Fold this sequence. Notes:
Layout: H1 2-18, H2 41-51, H3 56-71, H4 80-85, H5 92-105, H6 110-113, H7 117-123, H8 129-141, H9 148-158, H10 164-180, H11 185-196, H12 204-214, H13 226-232, H14 238-255, H15 274-278, H16 280-283, H17 290-299, H18 308-321, H19 335-343, H20 351-368, H21 388-401, H22 407-417, H23 423-439, H24 444-454, H25 460-475, H26 484-493, H27 501-513, H28 534-543, H29 550-566, H30 571-585, H31 590-602, H32 636-644, H33 665-669, H34 750-753, H35 759-779, H36 790-793, H37 803-825
Helix pairs in contact: 2-3, 3-5, 5-8, 7-8, 8-9, 8-10, 9-10, 10-11, 10-12, 11-12, 12-14, 14-18, 18-19, 19-20, 20-21, 21-23, 22-23, 23-24, 23-25, 24-25, 25-26, 25-27, 26-27, 27-29, 29-30, 29-31, 29-32
Amino acid sequence: MAALNRLSQRIRENFAETTRDLNLLTTSAGSSSSAYFDTSDEKLKEISKLLESRSERERLEGMKRIIAGISKGRDMERFFAQVVKNVVAPSIEIRKLVYIYLLRFASTNSDLLLLSINTFQKDLSDPSPLIRSMSLRVLTSIRVPVIQGIVMLGLKKLVNDRNPWVRKTVAGGLAKVYEMDSSSLPSLLPLLQILLASPSPLTLGATLTAFSEICPDRLDLLHPYYRHICRLLVDADEWGQSVALEVLTRYARAMLEKPDTAGSAPPAPTPKTTGDIDAESEDEFDGLDIDLAMFLDCARPLFQSRNPAVVLAAARTYYHLAPSNNKAIGQELLVLPLLRLAGSTEGRVAGKEIASLTWEVIGSMVEERPWLFAKHLTSFYVHTSEPVAVKTNKIRAMRVLVSAESAQASLREFKYYTRDPCDIVCEESVRAIGHCVRNQPTIAAAGLNVLMRLLKSSRDSLVAASVIELKSVALSNTSSLPEPQKLVARLARSLDGISNASARASVFWLVGQFAATEEKAVMGLGWEGVAPWVPDVVRKGIKGFSTESTIAKLQILTLAAKLLVLAPGTSLLLQLSTYLFTLARYDQDYDVRDRARFLGALLRGVRPDKTGTLDQNGEAEDEDEDGELGGVVLRREQVRVILMGKRAVVHDVKIGQGEYEVGSMSRAVSKRLAGYEELPEWTDDPTDSSLRDSEIEKQPRSVVPTPPVPTPSSASAPVPVHLSPSTSSFPKSAAGASPYDGSPAGSVPTHVKNKFKDLDAFLNSESEEETEESSEEEERPVQPVTAPPRSAIVPEYDEETSEEESEEESEEENSEDEAERAPLYGRYS
């Protein structure tokens, strides 16, 4: 019984020891995964002991604690010297963690890393691709110019590595080397060209990123690889797809021929006959550059990507390159994917930010090409739960899309949006209503009534926006609107209910602008040349001058000066203006004082007996200290032109900034960001298509190893068919062939595709062949199994055989082997 107890105890100890890393036992605190994230000072002191231990298990434990501490934000740089020693550890797990640590702190501890430079060079030949890539990343992260030669040797060694992840690391290392030493560009370009010819789509994004950082202007380097990159576009990773679309878009604008219907001009409707409809599929690419059509066709499947960045990049590509009115590769194809992306962001990480950016891009496109989204006006209706940025972008886009057919519905929508609790959305809605009043005569009167009702609102921001829009309406000289004087008079009557500073200033400016009249004064104070309702506005302005805002005070002074020009002989007006200029002379704001002094000197010619400036006692000053008049005296007509001249009013605020490209982040934030590059204009001298012919497209596209030689029993087995989305609707040339005859990466030769039209035919053929093989096996007689003779297994040598006979026999055997291998390996050579 005691022996059995000792045996069970030994088993439990062994089990606990072997399963400690699997966290199956909870009796030990160190075996729990939560212990790694215990970054207290006591635990940090144990890390040094663990790293110096001879046991691989304890060193692995120490590295795990260090990586966990880094993830918690603790400073683990003090263990750098001890971690570097473990770079030569035989355990692959320890070395992985060591390289992860070194990649984080390599740039700040380059001197200590130089002590292990030989180890990093040795790891470049490690069997593990992860170790090879990490060692190269560490080498390129050492910012010491002395080892640039060693780094270049490592890049040249791994640029042809069989693993695509290692080649991807090489592409990232090229940019690091160029950043440190720009004079190494001539030696980096051959390596970059090798990576551009890589058959694996995994390296596409990193390679083109390195191209953009090293030599973004050397688009001529992409000539032999253009079609190769287009073929890899669908199979590349999402980050690589967005980078490739940007690079190829720049290449197409600089090297390819511009389509006749590309640009902002709407497509001209062309009536189609019966013959045109039958031949539409054959002629849809006529007149287009075949390489441009190839790029657009390869980029079309990316509209269905799950990554928003890829969808936006594809839309930007079609916006800048695609022709209009083309069903296969036209600009119209970008509309539905963008609307789908903008409306399907709920529940997604950063969904609000994605929706805001997408609607910003859509708004910029609508501003320049409204005909693209004219049929989808209902998609721009605002929902209450949407963010403010989305609402404003939708309203701006709707304002551009308003037409005579949709004017009534759009006005109802804008009127409803003015009830939104956000002031920004309300102001944008009021601007949209003003746009409809100026540009849609059928709803001008209804829109004007809406703006006038908004003057009675209790929200100051809404009243201010309405006044500003009514100001632009009054200055627009629209024939469908009433006389501007009547509109301004209605605004003046509502002055007491307007409290916003900019709105009150706009009313005072409009009163002065439309105060002149040719009718004789019958009512009011009887000022000649001035409308009868104007003196009361001046009285209200002067009465509350001390409580007005600065911008309103400036406009009140301007209003008084305009009235003095219109009615210079009115004594009451002269007294009011004298009192007003006295108040302005002692105002606290220096802008008001300067405006009063400027207007007083300007009105010197209007009142010949007085200069318009006042002394300390309020009396007019006729001369300066030297007894002479200063400055130039203008006549009344000249002063009227200065004060009451027409002012250009900007009615609509454009979406974004026109100096930045549509779809760029710089346009979204209205600021030039780092890395922004303007898209080149279409070239007038496109390059010859033969420059894009290369041997790369003629080689087999498969990236897998050469398949084994098929046995006779499996020679008739069907080959799997690779269905690539990039070849489903590829543009055909005049001869009926694709512009590129090669197959995409990982596909089979073309003659295999013709055998099976669809998946059902492939499965049916496979089942038929399996039944035939099974029937043949049933009919074949069963042969008894006998052991082979010993001579068949162990060769018996004849002692009397001569050397010449043995050489002849070996030559015959070699020739027979070569004859057998020739037909089998011929198809893969």
